[in-house]
Specification:
Chain lengths: 335, 181
């Protein structure tokens, strides 16, 4: 591992002033330290931001949540307000990693973790994300768990965070402190599609520090479900974050995002559009899933993800609709 | 040696199993390496060195963590418990006793990590923290076998002593509840 200097930031502003071209911010280190050991990341300086006072959840005036970026994944998932008001967010966090890693990992670090594409993590292999211009062996090689949507000639990697998928469906936004001051980035615009710049996972600029994630109130039943190759401690083949508001048998509102299918959490805008105002039936859900997945461009060995994603959408929405039906007070009642 | 390869050192203080240690560490050193190489506490094991096997699990501030992914320099002032610190006054901890009674190991390489992880896990469950197999997130989790397996998934045992480990933690959890009732 390349030697580096270590400094502990005393404030967010202090962190920014300490950031130069070869600096990385350090949160829990669960991904960064591993990548440094692998030689994938080679910072000359680490600025530790895990001790900054962004380690709790504040309630916003509209009933939403402002989640501090230095909060641990465990603390987020254990929080009563999150479990009751935004259960899919707690479920998404709990679906990721192990107990040990969730205790160490921060919310900000979770958002910024890098892809687990095996070529990216292997410095003996070419990779456009790690070393721009060297090529993408995954396209013809081992890609059974890589992208089916929005990939490019340059990169077919997937974004690995479960939490980010739930945040996308929740219309969350990321609070960032940068050289030009504070700004807020909608979650759907935070991660990028690879295009011809796969080295950029997000729209963040050098020195930008994530300070919080803001989540508006949800007000409808939600669910995060993850399909993976073993029952625990594995990344998603496909995952879904879904929320559904059903009134008198019709879809009043719906939120859908998919994980494990693209270079960013895939907000299923087309499926949502196809569902609003439609009967909350299996047929509608199937049509909406197919509308979304029309855009899929599976690779040689990951075409299975298309029906998997379709079935996951249909099954999860059907379950949420059944729950809404059971909870509805009766015909003609509005609230 | 050019500046690219010159090691950088930092002075830190660690409290390990109740004892304070002042150390000069290479910024690249993990807590696992410092515990084993500098402090001679070789109970914590290096399995994968990537956070995947859990053999290095220790308690930092009472919470279980992978020692291999924790940079020592980033834990200046931390309160750490390793497997060497689980027993108190010559008495094994309830989790250690249950492991012996239920034959929860074979070769023993993963056992220190399993013990520290289980100790942290029982505390998390006692605080009402849910897991991905907890059906209703509004309720208090009950530590049945599915919950134990899920919560211990960050610790691999290549001998396959899982049946004994689950039995030991079922028993340790029962005794902990009885002691607190």
């Amino acid at each position: 591992m390349r030697p580096f200097t270590y400094e502990r930031a005393t404030s967010a502003e202090d962190a920014l002033t300490r950031h130069d071209g070869e600096t990385y911010y350090l949160g829990g280190g669960t991904n960064l330290v591993d990548l440094m050991r692998l030689g994938v990341e080679t910072p000359a300086r680490l600025v530790d931001v895990a001790h900054l006072p962004y380690d709790e959840i504040q309630l916003t005036p509209d009933g939403g949540l402002l989640i501090g970026a230095a909060m641990s994944n465990s603390a987020l998932a254990a929080d009563r307000t999150v479990r009751e008001g935004h259960p899919m967010l707690a479920q998404a966090v709990l679906a990721g990693a192990s107990g040990q890693i969730r205790n160490m990992a921060t919310v900000g670090g979770n958002l910024l973790q890098r892809t687990r594409c095996s070529y990216f993590q292997d410095t003996a292999k070419p990779c456009n994300k790690r070393d721009p211009g060297t090529g993408c062996p995954a396209r013809e090689g081992e890609h059974h768990n890589l992208a089916i949507l929005g990939h490019s000639e340059a990169c077919v990697a997937t974004q690995p965070s479960d939490m980010a998928v739930a945040l996308s469906a929740l219309d969350a936004s990321v609070h960032v402190l940068g050289r030009a001051g504070e700004r807020t980035i909608p979650m759907d615009e935070f991660h990028r599609l690879p295009d011809n710049e796969p080295e950029r996972d997000t729209v963040l600029e050098p020195g930008d520090l994530v300070t919080a994630v803001e989540v508006p109130p949800l007000g409808m039943p939600s669910r995060y479900r993850k399909v993976r190759e073993r029952a625990s401690f594995a990344f998603a083949l496909v995952s879904i974050a879904a929320a559904l508001d059903v009134r008198e048998g019709a879809v009043r509102d719906v939120r859908l995002a998919l994980g494990g299918v693209a270079h960013k959490p895939w907000r299923a805008w087309r499926a949502e559009e196809a569902l609003r105002g439609r009967p909350a039936t299996r047929e509608s859900f199937l049509r909406a899933a197919e509308a979304e997945l029309d855009a899929a461009e599976p690779l040689r060995d990951n075409a299975y993800k298309v029906p998997l994603a379709r079935n996951l959408i249909v099954r999860t929405l059907t379950e949420l609709a059944e729950r809404a039906e059971a909870a509805e007070p009766g015909e003609g009642t509005t609230s | 040696m050019d500046s690219e390869s010159t090691p950088v050192h930092a002075d830190i203080t660690l409290v390990v199993n109740g004892r304070e240690h002042r150390l000069s560490v290479d910024t690249r050193a993990s807590l696992l390496d410092v515990l084993r190489e500098d402090l001679g506490l070789t109970g914590s094991k290096k399995g994968c060195d990537h956070g995947q096997c859990g053999a290095c699990t220790i308690l930092i501030g009472g919470r279980r963590a992978n020692g291999c992914l924790a940079l020592a320099v980033a834990h200046d002032g931390a309160d750490i418990v390793t497997v060497e610190g689980l027993a108190r006054d010559g008495r094994l901890s309830p989790v250690q006793e249950a492991f012996i009674e239920q034959d929860a190991f074979q070769c023993g390489y993963c056992t220190p990590g399993q013990l520290c992880s289980a100790t942290g896990m029982l505390d998390e469950a006692g605080q009402g923290w849910p897991s991905t197999v907890t059906g209703d997130l509004g309720s208090e989790p009950v530590l049945d076998d599915d919950e134990i397996r899920e919560r211990m998934s960050g610790n691999l045992c290549r001998c396959g002593a899982y049946v004994g480990i689950v039995a030991a933690l079922r028993e340790a959890s029962r005794r902990k509840e009885a002691a607190e009732a």
